[in-house]
Amino acid sequence: LKMSWFWLYLPLHLLTATCLCHSIKAPTTSSQQSFKTDLFNFYHSLILADGKETTIHLLKDIPKRYYFVLEEGRVLAPFSITVTPCDVPIEWSILVYKSPPGKATPGDHDTQDVSKSQKASGMVSTIFNYKGNSVETYMGMSSHPALYLLEFLSTERDTHITVYLTSDTTSGHLYPELPMDPRIDVIGIGHTTVTLTWKHSPSVLQHRDSIQYCLLVNEKHNYKSLCAAETAIRSSGMKLPPTLALSLSPYLLEPQQVMILSNSELSIINKVSSGEVRQVCVGTKNTYTVPNLSPSTQYYFDVFIVNLLTNASAAYTGTFARTLEEPEPKVTELKDGKVIHVVLDGKRQKFYSLQYQARHKKIHFTFQLCQGQVRVHITRNGKTVASENLSGLRYFSLKGKLLDTYLVQLRSTEESNSSVKVQASPHFHKPLFPLLPESLKIKSFSKLRTCRSVTIAWLGTQEESKYCVYRKRIEEDQIWKELQSADRCSGPETRHKSEKVLCKYFHNLNLQRAVTTETIKGLEAGTLYLFDVYLFGPSGIPVRYHSKVVKTRKKC
């Protein structure tokens, strides 16, 4: 900005007037006091950059001032100022100091009197003021050189704002343009989804490669700017990546954040105390279905049009919607002694419900965890009687009254699918599963390993039972997959015949001696093997021990 006229005229004029005001003994008039205040405001102000977005930090109840001077020599000088509050409402105003006709010289100022100083104070006027937390833009036009003073004040708490001044209104906009109708329309509502649409920004049509839409979803309220949304999340004790994280840039996330990338869309889910705040960038699509919402919950939706080159954004008018109530879950009847195999969807995290009506006072529930992690919740006539995470084989023996109604609810506790087998029967009913040892671990003996054989051991019970041993050759990179994805409910029927090693019967009335060992021969040197043991009870349903991986010696 050219400020030649300002430095030649205004400082000398103001300084001379200041000296005269101090040298006169007469009582200070209100106009003189106002003029002194104007001088103070100017000399405690900072220059506001033209054509650049400036971040300004405000302390509570302490005004902050910036000034700028319009270029001299232009007949009509247009300019615009955009202020974006990033938190609480603020007050801001624009004051203008106009230059009188003609330029004064230093000699002329020496002969000025108090009355002229009082006239100078009349050259200051307030042309705009605003109070609130909306993004506000002032557009003005000046026909003569002038100095402008911007004053900002926060009366609620310390905060920050962004200010954008430009005197070049012909070379494009820093902020993307909003359409004539900037509202977001809700065109579909489901139990866990909401579908939104909005009108295209003119900026998308002109600069498709550098513009994209970003959506913010939360359960508290709408945000009037992306800056305000990020500030609210930070105030919850989080650190956010830069705004460009919304534009699919691979920024590192905090522990409280989850990043999901699918179909070229980036979702950043911030786990804050007040719920989830979800940020999703969808490119230049103007219709989007928000997935994975909770039923019967009110959500607030904001769409921001983001310029990837300048990081500047503009906000559509936010909207809100309430998802539909979840329908009553389907309840499956449990019958005496019948086994039900339940597969649980980890992504939806929904309960699977089973109902059983007691025909005896004592009831026996059996759960065999097949895959994943499952939580079980059992109620009797609406009151909780058991609730825990399942592990391996689990029995619940419950005592109640005839015709009591039991409700069993199962849920996967991880994102991958889980499965479990369930049986309900009277307490005296013949057990479906065999009597189990204290541990289902298989032990290998390192000292007994050779290049061609491996010795393993496992615990048995006091009950005569059948045990079958299987082996499988695997590679190093298959270990994790084999151990994690194993279906613990599957029996030997799923194994290849060549993997079978042997079957044997044994038991011992003395539990301390109910241990058996087996040496598996005919193996290859320096090779990894996966060993499984299956236990068969009277009913013939197997229980699988925890798989054991052992490597034969390379050299003997």
Automatic annotation (TrEMBL):
It is found in: Secreted. Keywords: Glycoprotein, Neurogenesis, Repeat, Secreted, Signal. GO terms for cellular component: extracellular region. GO terms for biological process: nervous system development. Its main location: secreted. SMART domains: FN3. Residues 1-21 form the signal peptide. This is Protein NDNF. GO terms for molecular function: heparin binding. SUPFAM superfamilies: Fibronectin type III. It comes from Panurus biarmicus (Bearded tit). Secretory protein that plays a role in various cellular processes. Acts as a chemorepellent acting on gonadotropin-releasing hormone (GnRH) expressing neurons regulating their migration to the hypothalamus. Also promotes neuron migration, growth and survival as well as neurite outgrowth and is involved in the development of the olfactory system. May also act through the regulation of growth factors activity and downstream signaling. Also regulates extracellular matrix assembly and cell adhesiveness. Residues 176-313, 434-542 form the Fibronectin type-III domain.
